[in-house]
Each structure stands twice: as structure tokens, then as C-alpha cells.
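Work package 3, deliverable 3.1, input record:
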Amino acid sequence: MVDLMIRRKRISGDERKIQILRSALPLFAKKGLSGTTTRELAEATGVSEALIYKHFPSKEKLFDSIEAYCLSTSEANIGIVESLEANTESLVRCIYLPMYTVLKNDMVQNDMDDKDFHRLVVHSLLSDGEFAHHFLKNTYTIWREKVESCIVAAREAGDITIKHRSTSIFPWLVQHMVACYAYKHLPEKNLVDYGIENEDDLVDEFTLFALRGIGLHQSAIEQYYHPSTF
Amino acid sequence: MVDLMIRRKRISGDERKIQILRSALPLFAKKGLSGTTTRELAEATGVSEALIYKHFPSKEKLFDSIEAYCLSTSEANIGIVESLEANTESLVRCIYLPMYTVLKNDMVQNDMDDKDFHRLVVHSLLSDGEFAHHFLKNTYTIWREKVESCIVAAREAGDITIKHRSTSIFPWLVQHMVACYAYKHLPEKNLVDYGIENEDDLVDEFTLFALRGIGLHQSAIEQYYHPSTF
DNA sequence: ATTATCTATAGATCTATAGATAATGC
DNA sequence: ATTATCTATAGATCTATAGATAATGC
């Protein structure tokens, strides 16, 4: 009762705090706030439950901290997008980018962090949507504005001639395509069969569908869509 | 301790069972299996917790029964789709149908059942995906096959000329568009701004985007897309 | 007699805290 | 001396069952 205490390696408070955040993330992502117990959280980090409460006042606050942590560490490929000029070529690149990022990441790697991030977003859709809102804002706002200005430029260049009621709908529709792809790939079970094996071909088809959907002329698509050079 | 027992109106076992299923559905949909307590389930139906266990052996089995109940009562507009001939006009109608169904339902009515159904699907995406799988199969299989055969017919009629790697990808992309629309509208918080107020206009833009994305010629779209007559 | 329903409660588990102990760094 | 960590446990809550009681239908 005295010297049986099993002690882990002692590390600094800040280090341990981040360790807890990191090991709690996949648990909360998969089982949600209510589905994860403090016992599981402690086991995942390899510490006692009491230690978790030294760093976070409650399970809820730990969950909140994880969301904040995720948002702070997610800086999309914004730099690339920001530097693009507003023209038809950039439009093609802008549409290709999220398709490539999401479809290739989710298929190829076992990059569980990406999946868990999406799971947190989906959990948020089932609660108040706050986290989903911040995620969409962080990740997509600049990209969306760029897409819109490129659509305007493409129209001025004569590469789009059909009438649009709104340009802002298109980036959202593209986002919907990739988001739903990601969501449907969260479970192990295969939910969709696109009839396309090759990942690059799938990215192609998603991108071409979207570009046609936006109303970009086939000639412009053929001129500017060369994924091998992106 | 003897005659203080508060008794509800006594109804038949089968009736009560369905009553429990129905009042448990919105709870499970919103808070998930682990987030809903037996106490809440009992209160929602207005019976004791013990009575719930007379009808269902466990909370998990009750949840399973709710999923089964939902699947059994969801018969999409399959009849309409099945009767359509495979041609370009049917393609346009087929794409319009889910857009109209989901976008109008979710926006106009306070038809909470539809939202809760989607919530159950989303919860399923966070677990094993079984329910989502059955939902997709039930609701979309016949529709998907019709869309594919219509695409083939439209190509034969000369209304689609671009090459496709696969026809089966297109119904899925359309499904993704409406599914993600529904998911993003689950929380009260407004997550997306399409820049279009009018619901019919929004259905239009979704549908036209998809039809163009499939590669249907603009002339065919103009010829066949007349939502007011659908 | 059978069925629907309740009260009461056991036993498990979960969240959170109190208080002790060992390692670290000044 | 301060900090990191643990054990032990209180108190709440949750799932599920046992057993009693009242209403129904034959």
C-alpha cells in the first residue's frame, strides 16, 4: 500500500497536457464526447484519471480543448491558393486542389488524423455545428473567394457563357462533393462504388464533373486541365 | 407506498412498443446511443424505465430496433423512378427528383423526422456504417440504376458526347451533393450561404450543375429541364 | 388468468476530488 | 520547495432486474 505505486516517466506539465490532447483526439473522434469515458482517456495516455483532471477541469473542457487544438493546427494549402491570379487556369487548379487533397489522402494513406478530423466535424454536425463552422471558415473561406473571382475572370475571358444566379454556390457544391466523399469513407465498410479503381482517375472525374457543372467550356477544360503538371 | 402508484393509461403491448420506438427515435438521432439514457427514454414515452425493458432486452437492442423500424418505413419515390423510360428526359427528371425532395423538405417544413433520419445515418457513418449502407441501398439503388441507363440512352441520342470512364460515378456525385446539403443543415447554426434565397432557384442550380457535370449538352438541358411541369 | 404497469433497488460504472508520495530543479 | 503523479474513494448516475399491483378480457 506504500511502495506499490507504479510511476510513469515524469515529464513536464505542458508536455503531458499535449500528450493527453493527442491521445484523447482519436477516442473522442470515434466515440464522441458521451461515448468516451475518463477511464479510457487515462488509459490511452497511460496516466491516472486524476492526472487528467490536473490539466483539464472536466471531460467537456478537454473535448473543447481538443477542438481548439485541431483548429489551431489546421492550416490548409491556403498559401498556394492565395498566390493564384484570378483566371481560368487558376479556376481549374482551385477545383482540382481539394479533390486531390481529400481523395488521395483518404484513400492512399492510413493517415488517421485526417479521418479523425472529419469525424470531429461530423460529430459537430450532430450537435451545435460550432466546430464544423470554424473548420469550414478556416479551411475554405479564402479558397471559396478565389474560386468565385476565378469564375468571374473565366466568364470575362469567354470561357464561361451560361448564366448563373450566384457564383457563391459553386465552391460550396465542390466542397459538398469532397466532404461527402470523406464522410462516406469514415466507416470501414465500403458504402459507395464509383466504378473507378485508379485514384488519379477518380480525382479526374470529380474535377471534370465540377468544372463542367460550373459551366466551363469543354475547350477551356481541355486547354487548362493537366493534372500531371499541377 | 401502496396506492401512490401513478398509472398511465394502459394500452396494448404492441401499441406501447411502437410508441416507445417512436419517441426514442428523436432522442437517439440527436444524442446517439451512448448520449441517451434509459431515464430519458422512459420520460420521452411517459412510462417507467422498467416497462421499456419489458419490450426491449437492452438499450442497444432498442436502438437496433429503431434502425430496423426506420428502414422498414422508408420507401422512397421508387415507383415514380421505376416507371420512367431510359431517355434524356428521364435523366433530367431523375436528377431533379432527389434535389427537390431533399432541398425542399429540409428547408420548408419542420419535418423533424427527415432530419432525424439523416442524423441516424450520420451516426452510423461514425460507427460501423451498417445503417448508412442499408439506407443507401434502400433509397438509392433503383434510382442509381435508372440514372445510369438514362445516361447511356442520352449518349445514344447524341445528348452526351464527352467520354466517361464510368457512368456509375454520376449518381453517386449527385447523391453526395444532396446528402451533404442535408448534413450541413442538421445543426441550427447556418453553415453555408449559397447566395440564393429562393428554394426553387436553389433546386434549379443544384440540378443544372449536376446535369452539366454529367456532360448533358446545354441544348438538351434547355429542351428537357422544365421543373414547373415535373 | 393474463397482461400492462409500477416501485424499489442492486450492481456497475462514471466523473471528479482529496490527500499522499516521489521526482525535479533551485 | 515545487511539481508531477499516484491511490483511494465519494457521490452521482446509469442499466437492468425482481417482485408487487392494478386493469383487462375471457
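Residues 2-3, 5, 7, 10, 37-39, 49-50, 53, 57-59 of chain A lie near DNA strand C (CB under 10 Å from a C1').
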